[in-house]
Each structure stands twice: as C-alpha cells, then as structure tokens.
Design brief:
mainly alpha, Fumarase C, Chain B, domain 1, Fumarase C, Chain A, domain 2, 4 domains, two-stranded antiparallel ribbon
Length: about 475
C-alpha cells in the first residue's frame, strides 16, 4: 500500500519500506536521514552478499524455497556485488541500510522471488553475521601486519647484535644493554598482542544467522549447513544472546587499544631517540617532515601520529562500552552505533601498522652515538655493587659503598673506569684488579646471563627462538 504524508517539511512516502504494512504515515525525512546507516554500513556489502548466498543455498537445500529460486537469487546477488564493486550501485538513503538496499535491488533485478531471501532471518541476525564476517577477515589482516613487523624487529636485532645502548629507567641512564635486547622487547609486546587477536578471533568466529529477530524461526533451517558454507567452526547457542551480543566487537576494540598502547610506546621511543639530545636513530626523510618556518627541522611526524591516533582507539573503546552498558535484551536500535567505532578502529590500527612496518624498513641506528651515551653517567655502577656482593658484602651495604664511590668520582669529574684500584680500595678492601673486567660495557652486558637477560649469548638464543616462532605463524 502506498501512503503519502504531507507537512511543512515536504512529502513522505511508505513506498519501498519493507516494514510498511503496519504504518499509515511515512517516516519524517529528518528522522529518515537521522536513522539511516547506509553511509557507513555499505562497506559491509561483500559480507552481506556472502551471507545471503549461503542463506539462499541452505533454504533451497532444506526445501524451504525452490532450487531454481535460490539459483536466481544467487545469480542476482553476484550481479549486485559487481555493481557495487564497480561503483555503479544506486545506494538510496530511504532504504536505511546495506541489507535493504541490496534486497530492494535484488527484487528490482529478479522480481518478487528476490523477497524470498529474507525468509527465516531478520536484520538482527543478518547484521550480526555481516560484522562477524567482516571482523574475521580484518583480524586476520591485522595479524598478518603484526607478523611483518615482528619479522622486521628480529631482522633489526640480528643486524645490530653488537650495538650497545643505555637501558633507561625514569628516562635516566641505568645499565648497558644490547640494542637487540630492547628490539626483542618490542617483539615480545607485539607477540602478546598477536595472541590476543587470535584468542579474540575464537569469539568472533561463531555463526549468528538463524537466531532471527531473537526468538529463532519457525522454518526448518539448517544452521550447521550455513556454518559449513561460511567456514564458521561454531554456531551460537541462544537466540536472544545472539542478537544482543556485541562482546566480540568490544573485545576486538579492547585488544586493539592494547596494541595501540604498545605502538604508542614504540613510537615514543623513536621520537625520543631521533632528537638531537639522544641522536640514536635516523628515521629517514620518507617518514619525517619539515617545519614551515624552521629550515633545519626534521620532525618524526609519522611516529607522533601513531602516538596520537592511539587516543582514537581508546575513544572507540569507551564509546562501545558506553553504548552497550544500559541496553535491555535483545536488539535495540542504539546498536546501530556499534559499526563506526569498529570501522574506525580497524582503519586506524591497519594504517598505523602499515606505516610502522615501512618505517622499520628504513630506520638506521647510530651505534656510535649510543655507545658514546654509555661512556657517561656511571652506567656500570650496579656491576660494582654486584662485585662487592659476590665477595660476601650484603647488597644493601654494597649499594651504599658504590653510591659513595659514584659521588667521589662525580666530584672529580671522572667515570668509574677512570678510577684506579687504590681509589676503589679507599671504600672497600674487597676490591681487586679483576673488578675492571666486570665494569667494562662488554663485561657488564655479558655477565647478565640469567634467563631473559641481556648477555649476547642469551640474545642470540632469543633471536633463534623468535625466528622459529615466526616461521610457525
């Protein structure tokens, strides 16, 4: 039935509304524009069509529709996919979302039989399927990008195996370590993120189609067949929970927020190291920009932008949690707002991973400057204290004695290696000539043989283990 409603805002119609039977007046154009999601959910078109093809195949297999009808539907859907991919599809706001736009176009192309595609399903379980298909694909792409970055980090660790760098605590020089050891710390962080995405994927990879609007369906559908056609290892258990659930999106964004925190810390390290105060890395012209007023500047903008974009993903996490926190069961239109945080998180994470991967390919470490930084700041003071403790002095006393030695050397403008043995003996008779082999940079680093420590022997084992892990991915 066609109903036309006039008011001061213009003309409204119920024509083309698939739910129009219940209504006497058309949607106000302000409300129609406000409620439409086609501007952003159209990017789910491939998933929507993939799900519809599987659904039609199942309906025919179970005798709910005829096979020739299913064949006609599938052919029409494939034509629509080509139209959208070619940019020739007439998206229409009055059809609200990607589901109705495709369904209406299908009916235009093949006639009333196209309306049979919606048999035994609702937009509630349909959108849940689309988003799960979409996230499944995107998570796999994110994992692929993480694999690339992990590989770059291990390559850099191997290439710079003899480079030394200060370990900073409180942004103060603490102890000497291998640069490779710090690069492998970044590898370990991202390895945990990768594991979190893989775990998240288990919850994403559950078929929701068949839950209908939330109560299931009266038709004799075969959900296991649809799961097989769409490569879902599991089928959701409870129809109410199925259409209510957005945990999988929340978990994805939460996992992404954790990753972005790590990317931000990595970026901050490169921002600091690229300053003249540190001067440990050259990020290359390709990943830096100049100043509009200061000709000498080379700014680490790409690293800074990764650091800044972390806030977007944090915002998306708060948005999706806030969206869901007060909703009653089962589906509510508020849940339309779940897509933009999800899409933005996917786009932000992938963009950051891509630029970081490319930046790691061009980065150059300035090992001489790093070594120079190790020649100041009493960097092996802990080794002096450890030396005394190995001689039997309680560590707290060793710490106090070493502190006095540092104060003495600082007053004379000397480093620990500049002091002779007689000067050390003024503070403790336990010092012998063998002290000097422990307080060199190599001596300090290679003495840290505890599991996970920075000794070169350890780091080489870490690189070998990391290579095996990556090859298994």
């Amino acid at each position: 039935m066609l109903v036309i409603y006039w008011n001061e805002f213009g003309r409204y119609t119920l024509k083309n509304k698939l739910w129009a039977g219940r209504f006497k007046k058309g949607t106000h154009k302000v409300a129609e524009k406000f409620s439409a999601s086609i501007d952003f959910d159209q990017r789910l078109y491939k998933e929507d069509i993939e799900g519809s093809i599987a659904h039609a195949t199942m309906l025919a297999n179970e005798g709910i529709i005829l096979k020739k009808e299913a064949d006609k539907i599938v052919k029409g859907l494939k034509q629509i996919e080509k139209e959208i991919s070619a940019g020739k599809f007439p998206f229409r706001e009055e059809f609200e979302d990607i589901h109705l736009n495709i369904e209406k176009r299908l009916i235009e192309k093949i006639g009333d039989v196209g309306g049979k595609i919606h048999t035994a399903r609702s937009r509630n379980d349909q959108i849940a399927l689309d988003m799960r298909l979409y996230l499944r694909k995107e998570i796999k792409e994110i994992i692929y990008l993480l694999n690339n970055i992990s590989d770059h980090l291990v390559d850099l660790a191997e290439e710079n195996i003899d480079a030394k760098i200060p370990l900073y605590t409180h942004v103060q020089r603490g102890q000497p370590i291998l640069l490779s050891h710090q690069l492998l710390a970044l590898f370990e962080m991202l390895k945990r993120d990768r594991a979190r995405y893989l775990d998240c994927l288990k919850r994403v990879n559950v078929l929701p189609l068949g839950a209908g609007a939330g109560a299931g369906t009266t038709f004799p559908i075969n959900r296991k067949l649809v799961a097989k056609l769409l490569n879902f290892p599991e089928v959701s258990t409870n129809s109410v929970d199925t259409v209510s659930d957005r945990d999988f999106i929340i978990e994805f964004i939460s996992t992404s927020a954790n990753l972005m925190m790590h990317l931000s810390r990595i970026s901050e390290e490169f921002v600091l190291w690229s300053t003249k105060e540190f001067d440990f890395v050259d990020l290359g012209d390709e990943f830096t920009t100049g100043s509009s007023i200061m000709p000498q500047k080379r700014n680490p903008d790409m690293a800074e932008l990764i650091r800044g974009k972390t806030g977007r993903v944090y915002g998306n996490q708060v948005a999706i949690l806030t969206l869901m926190k007060g909703l009653p069961f089962s589906y509510n239109r508020d849940m339309q707002e779940d897509k933009e945080p999800m899409f933005d998180t996917v786009d932000t994470v992938k963009a950051c991973l891509e630029v970081l991967s490319a930046m790691l390919n061009s980065i150059k470490f300035k090992s001489e400057n790093m070594k120079e930084a190790l020649n100041e700041g009493f960097i092996t003071a802990t080794d002096v204290a450890d030396y005394l403790s190995r001689k039997g002095l309680p560590f707290r006393q060793s710490h106090e004695v070493t502190g006095k030695i540092v104060s003495y050397a600082e007053g004379k403008g000397l480093e620990l290696m500049d002091l002779n043995i007689s000067e050390f003996k003024k503070f403790s008779k336990l010092f012998e000539e063998d002290l000097y082999k422990y307080i060199t940079l190599d001596g300090s680093i290679n003495s840290r043989k505890s599991h996970g420590g920075t000794a070169k022997k350890n780091v080489l084992k870490m690189i070998k283990t990391a290579r095996k892990e990556i090859s298994a991915w």
